[in-house]
Amino acid sequence: MADGKRRHPDRALSAAQVRNAKPGKHYDGNGLFLRVEDNGAKRWVQRIVIRGRQREMGLGSAQLVTLAEAREIALVNRKLARAGGDPLAAKREAAAVMTFEEAAREVHKAHLPTWKNKKHAAQFISTLETYAFGHFGPSKISDVSTADVLAALSPIWVSKPETARRVRQRIGTVMSWAIAKGWRRDDPTAAIAAALPRQGRTAANRKALPYAEVGGCIKAVQASKAGAVTKLALEFLALTAARSGEVRLAIWPEVDLEGAEWAIPAARMKMKRDHRVPLSPRAVAVLRAAQALGDGSPLVFPGTRHGRPLSDMTLSKLVKELGFEADVHGFRTSFRTWVQEKTDFPREVAEAALAHVVGNQVEAAYARSDLFDKRRAMMEAWAEFLAGDGHG
Asked: What CATH number did the domain enclosing 362 receive?
């Protein structure tokens, strides 16, 4: 499939051909081809007509971008070009987006002349350095998610309420600047109100467990006198980092035990998009145990009344009765913090696992894959971490 003048059919390449490709150009479809250098280096390139001019644009190393991912990007580029857009300009724009730390320092610099109190000016950047930069400072500001902000604020929301509120406000100021620049469409600080506990006597109501304590919590649940289905549902929730409603309303037609996959339909997802969840061996074992306890209804985790799901209160109450001051939704935050602090999995893989939309429209066009295979490896690592009581 070396270079030539004939038309090349769509999807001409296979994964095996990519692995074994010799030096030259190897064509696929939509202008996509694999360029192999004499030294063996492989890069994806797309030849595309942009506003009447034929251009070539690099799509990345074949070691980092799979054939399927390259096809997705090439298709998005072609559609954008046919609509009169410029994929090359969109790519440059995405690359120009600042990190959160760079943006924060730029905002601080812009506001300095307006601050009459030098102490307040210094606190603006120092609090972000202390409480935000360590969590997502190096990340593109368009990539910072609600989960990232929640992970930064949760440790201080109760113990340092005034500081936490100010940090949240300052993060919001930076995000508003990014929205004005066209780098974001949303402010993640505006979406975390429901996830953060009330500050005061009920402050611990929605606290997330440190990731190192989640494994111990699961074992405490397993050893408790709770109902068998409740125990399995709670463990499955932690293993998959899914939302409570997604787990409690899961039905067997969504589950492929042989393929180790759970397909949640868009109607039950917060973002109203289909979401596939790779299941670790332990998650599959939990489902097989639940299957043996089924009540004959389609529900994977039925409640005590036939055909009715478990209640969210049942799961939350169990965790708190065992002495863990955490809400079950907090397991998602625990998982996200573990990925960030204990693994090398990319941010976009973790965000895909949480079914979050990452970045602005431009970047979303370059990230259409659900990263399923990479997420499978991550969720298996999370399951192994939990099995070791969080000390692995």
From this structure: 1.10.443.10
